[in-house]
Design brief:
single chain; alpha/beta; five-stranded mixed β-sheet
Length: 523
């Protein structure tokens, strides 16, 4: 049998074009039939959905697969709440490592510690028994490192962002990061990449956008990940972020020359470039801008010449303003219509205002955003408020305002900065800490499904429709839940806020172009 077909029947399908559909037939990787289960055609295989929900599968529009896999299999520091707890975790983890292995940890966030004092490099040395230690902050834009690792990277001392305490940022951080991740063998890297992608599939994610580039990942890491894309794991669409690197991006197999092309740093590390000084940092400190408007212009022109999508990582309003100045200059050369057609991207876009949002509309920029940032760091008493003040913090991550004026949104996690959690991200967008920035559940779901496909110019993906690719997820909803997100897209529920404890749907299967890449409990 060369092209066996599969009938999925007895489910609740999120299919606006066929609202009464309870079954779908998959043949040759596409949806060959949709309708009522009683009218279904014969198939080579039949799967009984037993009332489960079927929706388009999710797309995570910003991930770092190797870092995600390392965080899942390594030292997770997201739960520590003091320097003492961090040191205890390092000591316990280091005791179980072989030879001279490097202690790789991720996820500490001092903004939620009662006492925000950090351990220094010498203290980390003692905790790890003299091992080299690299502990990335939640934002991945800074790290705590041990004296042993500093000694192994003497060139870091001359780089911007160096601090003998061992908390490194900017270029100094990139130096020690490269050395630390260089300790991961090729076999380990493949293993952790597979771990990350399989986990994504188990959450109903059928595609991810890997955001790489110098300072984030090396070329072999990037190309190795693309090589396993779609092989019983989600598809990977790679973005390589290097200035004037359109030719390099294409050579590496990337779909765009963007992703982690840094226009600035991150709020967690106080390196995001903001227009008004941080309230909890050095007096007058506004972070750092890494590109000029002229460099942005030239990069966009390079992308245009190569027919490739471009983009930038830009978090602070000053950095985003610089990026938009570059767009304006590029438009003078090639015209606004050509820029719009390319669907260039900005990753994160956290600190926005009406003028910046208008620029996204004018140039057709796709905003690749992470609603979980607001869930974790927005609202009173959290990191955004301590960095920016409450008023500015409530204006951050304005997904609702951007959606309402037609900015194209593609949602993701920035994993491991925040966990892979698509339904959680939908809830976070619909229940933003600032009610003025909320969007409907249906619109948030679309941004996390079809929005991700449109961001890579695949406009016919992300829907359950006759002839469309058979890429979908099957969900169980918690027993007895009749409100919240499990109402799932029929109408927008009343949400209690970002911390709503209502259980979210559980993935039972993920199907990518007809191939099952994850299955749990279907027959």
């Amino acid at each position: 049998m060369t092209n066996p077909s599969t009938l999925y029947r007895g489910g609740v399908l999120h299919c606006p074009a066929e609202p009464s559909a309870t079954a779908l037939l998959v043949r040759d990787g596409r949806i060959a039939w949709l309708g009522a289960a009683a009218d279904a055609p014969a198939a080579d295989r039949v799967v009984d959905l037993d009332g489960a929900l079927v929706t388009p599968a999710f797309v995570d529009a910003h991930v770092h697969a190797t870092d995600t896999g390392l965080a899942m299999s390594g030292l997770d520091l997201s739960a520590v709440r003091s320097a003492g707890e961090l040191l205890d975790a390092v000591s316990a983890f280091a005791a179980g490592l072989p030879g001279d292995a490097v202690v790789l940890g991720h996820g500490w966030d001092e903004s939620n510690w009662p006492e925000k004092t950090l351990p220094d490099a010498a203290t980390l040395d003692r905790a790890a028994g003299g091992r080299r230690v690299y502990l990335s902050q939640a934002s991945i834009h800074s790290a705590l490192v041990s004296a042993a690792l500093l000694a192994a990277c003497p060139e870091a001392a001359a780089a911007p962002g160096y601090d003998p305490s061992g908390w490194l940022r900017r270029d100094a951080h990139h130096v020690v990061r490269a050395a630390a991740l260089g300790s991961v063998s090729a076999a380990q890297r493949v293993a952790v990449q597979g771990t990350a992608l399989r986990h994504a599939a188990s959450l109903g994610i059928a595609a991810v956008h890997e955001c790489g580039g110098p300072g984030t990942s090396d070329e072999s890491d990037f190309t190795g990940l693309l090589a396993i894309s779609g092989d019983r794991v989600p598809e990977v669409y790679g973005y390589w972020g290097e200035l004037l690197g359109a030719a390099k991006a294409r050579e590496l197999g990337a779909v765009g020359a963007g992703g982690d092309l840094y226009a600035d740093g991150a709020l967690g590390s106080r390196t995001a470039h903001v227009s008004a000084a941080y309230l909890d940092g050095e007096p007058g400190g506004c972070g750092h801008g890494y590109v000029t408007a002229e460099q942005v212009r030239d990069h966009l022109l390079d992308c245009t010449a190569h027919g490739l999508q471009g983009g930038f990582h830009a978090i602070g309003d000053a950095a985003i303003s610089t990026v938009l100045e570059g767009f304006a200059a590029a438009a003078q050369k090639v015209g606004t219509d050509r820029l719009r057609a390319a669907r260039h991207r900005v990753e994160h876009a956290e600190i926005m205002n009406k003028r910046l949002i208008a620029g996204f509309v004018e140039y057709g920029i796709v905003a690749s955003m992470q609603p979980a940032f607001d869930r974790l760091w927005g609202g009173a008493g959290r990191m955004y408020e301590s960095r920016l003040g409450l008023s500015r913090s409530l204006e951050s991550n304005p997904v609702g305002a951007m959606h309402s004026v037609g900015v194209a949104l593609a949602f993701g996690s920035d994993s491991p900065v925040t966990p892979l959690d698509p339904w959680g991200s939908v809830r976070a967008a619909a229940a933003h800490h600032n009610p003025a920035q909320r969007m409907s559940v249906r619109a948030a779901f679309a941004a996390h499904t079809r929005g991700g496909w449109r961001a890579v110019h695949l406009d016919n993906e992300g829907v359950l429709a006759l002839g469309a690719p058979a890429t979908f997820a099957v969900w169980s909803t918690p027993a007895g839940v009749d409100r919240g997100l499990p109402v799932l897209l029929a109408e927008d529920p009343e949400l209690r806020g970002p911390e709503d404890p209502t259980p979210l749907p559980a993935c039972r299967a993920t199907v990518l172009r007809g191939d099952v890449i994850y299955e749990e409990g279907l027959s």
